[in-house]
Amino acid sequence: MGRSRGGLTTKIHLLCDSLGLPLKFIVAAGQSSDFTYAVPLLEGEKASYVIADKGYDSQEIVNFIEEQLNATPVIPPKSNRKLQRQYDKIIYKERNVIERLFGRLKQFRKLATRFEKIKRNFESLLSVACAWIWLN
Q: pLDDT, tens digit, for every residue of 66-113?
């Protein structure tokens, strides 16, 4: 857990397939930046496209996706970026798959309210919730 303006918070960085099934996750402190966990999350994966939101817009991540994964990054550029990149807006609409997955995870009350205060216990509970989603 990390401290932010709203109190103690947590971020879940989650990787899913095109069907919305969870593959990998990293739990981080709430005040940490999104793009610091993108490369460790994507290492060893194979994909044609990597779809992410603006929080993951960094040249390091884009280069990693193109060079290491041989995939196309579908990440909209931040508005303050000096060199605005192009991205496929049609494919970006598929990002709702991960948003729906987070909605399914929020149905688990202990995850949504963060009953578990110890990171190890929270990650275990998140693993059980992901396994439950795979089984259904």
A: 999 999 999 999 999 888 999 999 999 999 999 999 999 999 998 888
Query: Which tokens belong to 80?
Result: 């303050």
0.70 cut: is pTM over it?
Answer: yes
Contact indicator for 22, 45 with CB cutoff of 8 Å: no
Angle at 98 (CA atoms; ends 81, 55), nearest 5 degrees: 20
The letter for the amino acid at 97 is V
The token pair at 121 is 């216990």
Spatial distance between the Cα atoms of 87 and 3, rounded to a whole number of angstroms? 34
Report whether 4 contacts 31 (CB < 8 A). yes
- What does the buried/exposed string (b/e) look like for 26-42 if buried means 16 or more CB atoms within 10 Å of the residue's CB? ebbeeeeebbebbbebb
- Strand (E) or helix (H) holding 14: strand 7-16
Contact, 116 vs 125, CB < 8 A? yes
Distance of CA 5 to the CA centre of its chain: 22
10 Å CB burial of residue 50 (0-12, 13-18, 19+) is buried
